[in-house]
Amino acid sequence: MRFRRRRRELVCREAVALMADYLDGRLDARDDARLRRHLAGCPHCSEYLAQLRATIDALGHAEPDALPDEALDELVNLYRRWQSDRGDG
Amino acid sequence: MGDDAALVDRLRAGDEAAFAELVRRYQGRLLRLAEATVGSRALAQEVTQDTWLAVVRGVDRFEGRSSLATWLFHILLNRARSAARREERAGRPDETVGEQFDARGAWVTPPQPWAERVEDRLVARQLAGRVQELLGELPEVQRQVVVLRDVEGLPASEVGELLGVSDGNQRVLLHRGRARLRELLTREMVDS
Asked: Which of A39, B15, B47, B123 would be a feasible disulfide site paired with B34, CB 3.0-4.6 Å?
């Protein structure tokens, strides 16, 4: 194609659709530039992206529940039973 | 963790203290992933017990090519899948993400702002606790992908192997899960 039409600007729906790959660093250079341009002029999509990032960050800081002593005892008992069964067999 | 290998060696030799230490290190993470897979805490506990039995039986087969965590997750997911099949749970329908756009692709209801409040450490800590509880709201496979990628921090390649989902599918599931959690957190952040 001789005349490459200049790509129109993104609308919000398209911007949001690109964010998954943007966060993974997988957008090609052109879409990356288009998304950045959109974000620079759109506080709503910028807020949405910031919230996605905050969500991912929160997930990365989620601690597993502490292990109660009883749960540890139960598993150690399981281990002992397994060992003695194995010794008998 | 650095001395996992030493603990595994001791476990091979039948050292109970090494077993207890491994449980201390990994049971919380195993339970979380089990719950993400089977949906109920009680069944998840059974699944982790099965997993630990499989670990002590099969510890000689651990070659250290993957991290210990990945090996444990692999065993756990196999057990969890067969447990879930036994229970014949119907999978929850995949909910579509709630973002709404008008015909021109603009926001119908723009996101209500809260991201800036996370700069407050206390808010960030509350959010980390809450997001974990909200994981239960996601459909099963989304939950597994989100736990393994964003909570456990495993690379996409390992997660694809553990769950048997294609790269493209994994990206869709991850994004849907993140978007759904963002939506749920927004409800709480805006109400509070």
From this structure: B47
A24 contacts B124? CB cut-off 8 A: no
Q: B4-87 has which fold?
A: Rna Polymerase Sigma Factor; Chain: A (1.10.1740)
* Domain total of chain A: 1
Q: How is residue B61 annotated by DSSP?
A: G
Distance from CA of A29 to the nearest CA of B (A): 19
* Segment A35-64, tens digit of pLDDT: 999 999 999 999 999 999 999 999 999 888
Count of Cβ atoms closer than 10 Å to residue B15 Cβ: 13
Residue A50 forms part of a structural domain: yes
Closest CA–CA distance from residue A38 to any residue of chain B (Å): 12
Binary contact (B131, A58; C-beta < 8 A): yes
Domain range B115-191, CATH class: mainly alpha
pTM of the model: 0.75
- d(Cα A35, Cα A14) in Å, to the nearest integer? 9
Which range of residues forms the domain containing residue A60? 12-88
